[in-house]
Design a protein that fits this description.
This protein has about 300 residues and is an all-alpha fold. The chain has helices at about 1-40, 50-70, 75-80, 80-105, 110-115, 120-130, 135-155, 170-185, 195-225, 230-260, 260-265, 270-280, 290-305. The protein has 13 helices and no strands.
């Protein structure tokens, strides 16, 4: 009886941990969906590297009061694992989002959404290449269903609309960002356990800003500068707090609890959230195909999670 009770308790704790982790990951995807919408909406006024630089600058200022006390006596961890911090700061902070913003200058949100829906596939392949962990048949089926749901939403319920899609250099730029993000997601779980998530995110922010600085200076001098307004200030602050601070803290913790493979299966929620944001922010109608597509994505995701939620 004791063994059975202990097993049941362990299963319940595992189930609650999985629910918590997936909730964090889904919230992160929601924050990043708003980032896609805003990033595309202000691309004419805000050059891509500047947007990435300023959002991470604000994020660093927000994190600093909480991170610095936690980092006392732990800076030796950064020196010891300098290569890991350098790679994570360069991929997750410096290059990934800047590349996304560059791509959004040349492509549509629909194309970007379709490409972004391929992230779980890229994540599975990268996890297999780095860690040797292969996806199950159930997870492959779940991935196929979630991609079907995304396609239904972006095609607006008419499959022939997909024939009118035209891919360009911006799509290639965004596609290049996907393996960069998967490298970050796979390696982020290797962070020193003695360093908490807030301090870890702050150190990566400093490294990312350092890497972005020369590109930011070049863009400011030779390309173009932002057109500032109060709405631009609000947009940068919102993206910094939601996408850079909360999004990354939630994602990092979710990956720590579940691994990059399972975390990647939540990525199709981003286009679904993007469609919902268009309804509430842009006044677009919520149509039947949106509901069906969201339902297919949810069902496909539940397939990939297996019995973890129980």
């Amino acid at each position: 009886m004791t063994t059975t009770a202990g097993t049941d308790t362990a299963q319940q704790q595992h189930g609650r941990s999985a629910v918590y982790a997936y909730a964090l990951l889904i919230w992160a995807n929601f924050f990043w969906a708003t980032n896609w919408v805003i990033g595309r909406g202000i691309h004419a006024a805000f050059p891509p590297v500047a947007l990435s630089f300023y959002r991470w600058t604000v994020a660093g200022l927000v994190l600093a009061p909480f991170a610095l006390p936690r980092l006392r006596g732990r800076w030796h961890l950064v020196r010891t694992h300098w290569w890991l911090f350098l790679v994570l700061g360069a991929t997750g902070v410096a290059t990934f989002q800047a590349i996304i913003y560059v791509g959004l200058n040349y492509t549509t949100a629909v194309n970007a959404t379709i490409l972004n829906a391929a992230t779980p596939l890229v994540m599975v392949l990268m996890v297999w290449a780095i860690d040797g962990q292969a996806a199950t048949r159930r997870q492959w089926l779940g991935m196929a269903l979630t991609f079907l749901g995304v396609t239904l939403i972006v095609s607006r319920g008419e499959w022939q609309n997909l024939r009118h899609l035209r891919f360009n250099s911006g799509d290639l730029i965004i596609f290049v960002s996907l393996p960069i993000w998967t490298i970050y997601s796979v390696l982020v779980n290797r962070r020193p356990k003695e360093m908490d998530g807030v301090g870890f995110a702050f150190v990566l922010t400093l490294i990312g800003l350092t890497a972005l600085s020369p590109f930011f200076a070049y863009e400011e001098i030779f390309v173009r500068t932002p057109v500032w307004s109060w709405s631009m200030v609000a947009a940068v602050i919102y993206i910094a707090v939601s996408s850079s601070v909360l999004g990354y803290l939630f994602w990092n913790r979710g990956v720590e609890l579940l691994g990059a493979n399972r975390a990647g299966f939540t990525y199709p929620f981003q286009p679904a959230f993007t469609a919902l944001l268009a309804v509430f922010l842009l006044g677009e109608p919520f149509r039947t195909y949106d509901a069906i597509g969201f339902g297919i994505i949810l069902f496909g995701w539940l397939l990939t999670t297996g019995s973890q939620m129980r």
